[in-house]
Design goal:
175 residues; Rna Polymerase Sigma Factor, Chain: A; 2 domains; 70% helix; 0% strand; DNA-binding; WH-like_DNA-bd_sf
Length: 175
């Protein structure tokens, strides 16, 4: 678009926009809340600018039609967000582990910090250096926390009647 036509187009838009602005704002405020009305008005003016060469001589009904469609889109988006929020609200936390899942029960009995460091070590296969990077602590601190978390897990497993890892061999021992 050459600068002369661009300046002419801009001047024509600026002449038309105030009349459309006030009328469309009143139209929207009667149909929705103020925040939505402002958002839809902005979108309507953007469309008016983009499609300015298509605007008929009777510009106000055309602008109302654009605003009506933009408002319908905004209302659909609001309903989708409400449905999503409702679905999220009904999500339940993971159910407790089954009674025969002794490790899950023992992990549930640990403090959150201990369970997290054990998951980083066992599930993510991180050494103390990697755990230190995730937690933002020194490697020494991560090693100590991991050692203590393992001890607490053993204690939880014993408390719940499960062995704490490998059973000791009694082979070669006298009864």
């Amino acid at each position: 678009m050459d600068p002369v036509n661009s300046d002419d187009r801009r001047a024509r838009f600026e002449a038309l926009a105030p009349a459309v602005l006030d009328a469309v704002r009143r139209y929207l405020v009667r149909r929705t809340d103020a925040a939505t009305a402002d958002d839809v008005l902005s979108e309507t003016l953007l469309i008016l600018w983009r499609r300015f060469d298509e605007v008929p001589a009777e510009h106000l009904p055309w602008a109302y039609g654009v605003a009506r469609n933009c408002l319908a889109n905004a209302e659909r988006a609001r309903r989708r967000q409400a449905r999503l929020a409702a679905r999220i609200a009904f999500l339940r936390p993971a159910p407790p582990p089954p009674a025969d899942d002794r490790l899950g029960i023992a992990m549930a009995g640990l403090r959150g910090e201990d369970a997290e460091i054990l998951r980083l070590w066992a599930w993510e296969d991180l050494a103390p250096g990697g755990i230190a990077a995730v937690l933002g602590v020194s490697v020494n601190a991560a090693s100590i926390r991991l050692h203590r978390a393992k001890q607490r897990l053993r204690a939880e497993l014993r408390k719940n009647g499960a062995g704490a890892g490998h059973a000791e061999s009694t082979e070669g021992r006298r009864p």
